[in-house]
């Protein structure tokens, strides 16, 4: 199961690379065409914007899995193991609640957004705003799994250290690849 999850996140990282590359290529090509040839691709601005939205929201899930989001590590560092676990529990409860709220908000808003079309491409705006399902659901699943690990006592010292911002040196970042 762990291999399948790691493969899924590796595929997400490849998707993030493709989205960023596509966004950069479209914008760069459009700049060259506008200033060099007095023409341009009308679709590139819109698609680059949509790629950026998807890049941000998919990246939020990947970053959350890797404890990459901003935290108050100086506060958490004041506590011992038990205090850090309590902070981790409270943090994941809040994240679970907000993620479920985000998912529910996407659920309620999607019918409205799906009926609207993008001005240039004509794509349903549901494709743009629908990413909230992935982000809300993904972060909720990660937080729920972490809560289960905390409650059942299966949280590891490495997880606690990552939550507290310890051991995030370059060797650890390179090692995860």
UniProtKB/TrEMBL annotation:
Chief localisation class: membrane
Keyword Methyltransferase: no
Keywords from the UniProt entry: Cell inner membrane, Cell membrane, Membrane, Transmembrane, Transmembrane helix, Transport
Domain spans labelled Tripartite ATP-independent periplasmic transporters DctQ component: 23-152
Membrane-protein topology: Multi-pass membrane protein
Transmembrane stretches, start-end: 12-35, 47-64, 85-107, 127-144
Domain of life: Bacteria
UniProt cross-references to InterPro entries, sorted A to Z: DctQ, TRAP_DctQ
Complexes and interactors: The complex comprises the extracytoplasmic solute receptor protein and the two transmembrane proteins.
Family: Belongs to the TRAP transporter small permease family.
Role description: Part of the tripartite ATP-independent periplasmic (TRAP) transport system.
Protein name: TRAP transporter small permease protein
Native source species: Rhizobium helianthi
Taxonomic placement: Bacteria, Pseudomonadati, Pseudomonadota, Alphaproteobacteria, Hyphomicrobiales
């Amino acid at each position: 199961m762990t291999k399948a999850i790691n493969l899924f996140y590796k595929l997400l990282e490849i998707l993030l690379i493709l989205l960023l590359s596509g966004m950069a290529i479209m914008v760069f090509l459009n700049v060259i065409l506008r200033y060099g040839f007095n023409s341009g691709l009308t679709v590139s601005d819109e698609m680059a914007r949509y790629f950026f939205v998807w890049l941000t929201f998919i990246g939020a899930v990947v970053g959350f899995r890797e404890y990459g989001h901003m935290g108050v590590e100086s506060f958490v560092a004041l506590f011992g193991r038990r205090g850090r676990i309590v902070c981790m529990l409270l943090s994941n409860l809040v994240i679970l609640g907000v993620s479920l709220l985000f998912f529910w908000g996407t659920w309620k808003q999607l019918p409205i957004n799906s009926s609207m079309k993008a001005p240039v491409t004509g794509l349903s705006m549901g494709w743009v705003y629908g990413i909230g399902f992935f982000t809300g659901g993904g972060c909720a699943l990660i937080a729920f799994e972490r809560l289960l690990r905390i409650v059942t006592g299966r949280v590891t010292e490495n997880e606690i250290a990552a939550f507290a911002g310890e051991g995030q040196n370059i060797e650890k970042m390179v090692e995860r690849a």
